[in-house]
Design a protein that fits this description.
The structure is a single chain. With about 240 residues, the chain is an alpha+beta fold. The chain folds into 2 domains: about 100 residues, no CATH class; about 120 residues, Alpha-Beta Plaits. The chain contains 8 helices and 9 strands. The strands form 2 sheets. Strands 1, 2, 3, 4 and 5 form a 5-stranded antiparallel beta sheet that branches. A hairpin with a 5-residue loop joins β7 and β8. The radius of gyration is 23 Å and the shape is elongated.
């Protein structure tokens, strides 16, 4: 029998868990050398990707998050009790460092969409004497695309710095992805202390008013999925699903 793993957590007194989890299976605690894993016993080879299962996974993790700060596993993680125990024992020092990083924090997500594109930039290049002909026209088009790409990259980098300035001092750690040539230009995950979430949200609300040309998608608080970083280590070590 395999266990469905929801998250790891530091042991706390009077720790409570939801009665049921994935596929209605009972949720229980698995003691792991000072830590605890929230798991369910399942007799299946893989977990169906359904809305109901995804919501149950999140519900279990959120219940833990309301009591302490968990390191959540990716949806669908199945392993044996021995594999989970072996992983925790082998990575105990690294996991303690990870808990120290996220303790008392939640994850906030910010996505920024812009309307910039190559066509919007209307890059004008100096004319040369050899612009005529299909070959020259093709090269000129490519040159405009390169210059436009560089300009988009510069504007995206400025946007990243602007966002960082707006929430300075409120983020313990961040992960930011830039895609200058796409509508979704910036995707950021911020690790924010629970007591600072209200201030963080207020700062973002004010920032949005400064940049009406941008569309913001803000969500959270979530468990620190982006900062747990345990899925890849676990899967590489054991090759589990």
């Amino acid at each position: 029998m395999k266990l469905y793993a929801y998250c790891l957590a530091e042991s706390v007194e009077e720790f409570t868990v939801p009665v049921n989890g994935i596929s209605g299976a009972p949720v229980r605690q698995l003691a792991l050398d000072g830590l605890v894993a929230l798991v369910s016993d399942l007799e299946i080879a893989s977990v169906p990707v359904t809305r109901e299962n995804a919501l149950m996974h999140e519900a279990v993790v959120r219940t833990v998050m309301n009591q302490t700060t968990p390191l959540p596993f990716r949806f669908g993680t199945l392993a044996t009790a021995e594999q989970i125990q072996s992983y925790v024992s082998a990575r105990k020092t690294a996991l303690e460092s990870r808990f120290a990083l996220v303790r008392g924090c939640v994850e906030m997500s910010v996505k920024i969409i812009w309307n910039a594109s190559f066509n919007d930039l209307k890059v004008e290049l100096p004319k040369s004497q050899n612009e005529e002909g299909p070959g020259a026209a093709f090269l000129l088009k490519k040159k405009r695309e390169i210059v436009g790409s560089e300009r988009l990259a510069s504007e995206a980098a400025e946007l990243k710095q602007w966002l960082s300035d707006q929430i300075q001092g409120l983020v313990r750690e961040e992960q930011v992805s830039l895609r200058p040539t796409e509508k979704l230009v910036l995707a950021a995950s911020h690790l924010v202390e629970r007591d600072a979430v209200a201030t963080y949200t207020q700062k973002l609300t004010a920032a949005r008013l400064e940049r009406p040309e941008l569309h913001f998608l803000v969500s959270g608080p979530w468990a620190p999925y982006s900062f747990a970083n345990i899925d890849l280590e676990f899967e590489m070590h054991f090759g589990v699903s």
